[in-house]
Each structure stands twice: as structure tokens, then as C-alpha cells.
Specification:
The complex is a heterodimer.
Chain A (H helix, E strand, L loop, with lengths): L3 E3 L4 E4 L4 E7 L6 E7 L6 E6 L3 E5 L2 E6 L4 E6 L8 E8 L6 E3 L3 E6 L1
Parallel strand pairs in A: 2-11
Antiparallel strand pairs in A: 1-3, 3-8, 4-5, 4-9, 6-7, 7-8, 9-10, 9-11
Chain B lengths: L4 E3 L2 E4 L5 E6 L6 E8 L3 E9 L2 E5 L6 E5 L5 E5 L8 E8 L8 E2 L3 E5 L1
Parallel strand pairs in B: 2-11
Antiparallel strand pairs in B: 1-3, 3-8, 4-5, 4-9, 5-6, 7-8, 9-10, 9-11
Chain lengths: 111, 113
């Protein structure tokens, strides 16, 4: 079992719709969870991080964490063509540990 | 505030050669992590340096090594290059621990021929 798993996609949504990206992780002791966005040919950039169970909202983005189910998701509301990118889920076990990345989900927002 | 600077941006090397990549973190950041990114394997953790000490290490052969200087700049070295080492090498900078996430550099694209 891989440490961090994501649906590889591609996930296609129409402009204005909600995009839902999912991630599961294997280490129940993991404490911090991240979503990065990577445009083609660019390096990853941090969108959000979440530590506590529940939802965390930042603009059009909402991260959801369920530690009991070892599941973290990212919702993108009012999706725009500029949101088309690969979204990487990442997990940190403890503050001074290494960050493990999932394989990424490719999102395409269709105008 | 300057971002994370990686040099060079592109490299072409021959099998068997060695290569050194450089990373200057954001000013004040003391932790530098290195990742290898390939289409098939995604982002794979190489190692992390904090205050000139290797704090974490990934599952890469000993041909991959790194170091960090007193000014937090870091270098990674790959010896005896193999075709499979062709990848994007990314450096990530953080203050001291990764709880608030990384800032990545633009990466070095290494091609081994």
C-alpha cells in the first residue's frame, strides 16, 4: 500500500462547477496535510494545509480532513480554466519528519 | 523577499558522469529538502538538511548525496549518473520544520544521455 494515494485522473469539470479531489494516507499517526498545485512545466505551490478534523476554507478552496477515515479532500468551488493543473496531496507525520507526496490528480476545467 | 533559487535550470550529462545541483533557500529558512520528480514515480523524497545536518533521508542509493552550508545553501550531488536519473530535481525550503508547508524552487531539469 502506498503511503499517500490519489486518483490519477484526469478529472474534467465544466467551468463554474465544483471540483472534488480526494486523497487517502496509510499512516494513522500523520499530523499535517497539504494540497499543492502544479502547473505543467512549473514547480508545486502550496494551496492549503490542514491539521484538524473538519473543514478549512480559503477563498474558493476548502480542505476537508477526516483522520478516522484517513482521508483528506480538496474542493474547488466555481472552477476556472486557470485551475487546470495537477493537484498534489502531501502528508507529514510529525513536524520534523519528511513530507510524503501522492502521485497527483490532473484536473481539467472545461470552458 | 527572494524565493528559492535553484541552479542550473537545465543540465545534460553523460552516463557515468557526476553532477552537482545548488539550492539557495528563502532568507531565514534553515531547512532544505530535495525531491526527485519523474512522470512515473511522482515526487520522491531524497533528503532534508537542517542547520548543516542531514535530518531525514529517503530511499535512494548512496550515489545521491547532499550537504548544507552555514548560510543554509544546499547542494546535492549525483555520482556515476544513470539514464534513470533523468528527472526534475526540486528543492524545497521551510523555516525549520515542515508543518506550514514548503516553498519550492523552479527545479533543475537533468537529462542523462
Amino acid at each position: 500500500q502506498k503511503e499517500v494515494e490519489q486518483n490519477s485522473g484526469p478529472l474534467s469539470v465544466p467551468e463554474g462547477a465544483i471540483a472534488s479531489l480526494n486523497c487517502t494516507y496509510s499512516d494513522r499517526g500523520s499530523q499535517s496535510f497539504f494540497w499543492y498545485r502544479q502547473y505543467s512545466g512549473k514547480s508545486p505551490e502550496l494551496i492549503m494545509f490542514i491539521y484538524s478534523n473538519g473543514d478549512k476554507e480559503d477563498g474558493r478552496f476548502t480542505a476537508q480532513l477526516n483522520k478516522a477515515s484517513q482521508y483528506v479532500s480538496l474542493l474547488i468551488r466555481d472552477s476556472q480554466p486557470s485551475d487546470s493543473a495537477t493537484y498534489l496531496c502531501a502528508v507529514l507525520k510529525t513536524s520534523y519528519d519528511k513530507v510524503i507526496f501522492g502521485p497527483g490528480t490532473s484536473l481539467s476545467v472545461i470552458p | 523577499k527572494a524565493g528559492v533559487t535553484q541552479t542550473p535550470r537545465y543540465l545534460i550529462k553523460t552516463r557515468g558522469q557526476q553532477v552537482t545541483l545548488s539550492c539557495s533557500p528563502i532568507s531565514g529558512h534553515r531547512s532544505v529538502s530535495w525531491y526527485q520528480q519523474t512522470p512515473g514515480q511522482g515526487l520522491q523524497f531524497l533528503f532534508e538538511y537542517f542547520s548543516e545536518t542531514q535530518r531525514n533521508k529517503g530511499n535512494f542509493p548512496g550515489r545521491f548525496s547532499g550537504r548544507q552550508f552555514s548560510n543554509s545553501r544546499s547542494e546535492m550531488n549525483v555520482s556515476t549518473l544513470e539514464l534513470g536519473d533523468s528527472a526534475l530535481y526540486l528543492c524545497a525550503s521551510s523555516l525549520g520544520e515542515a508543518s506550514y508547508g514548503y516553498t519550492f524552487g523552479s527545479g533543475t531539469r537533468l537529462t542523462v544521455v
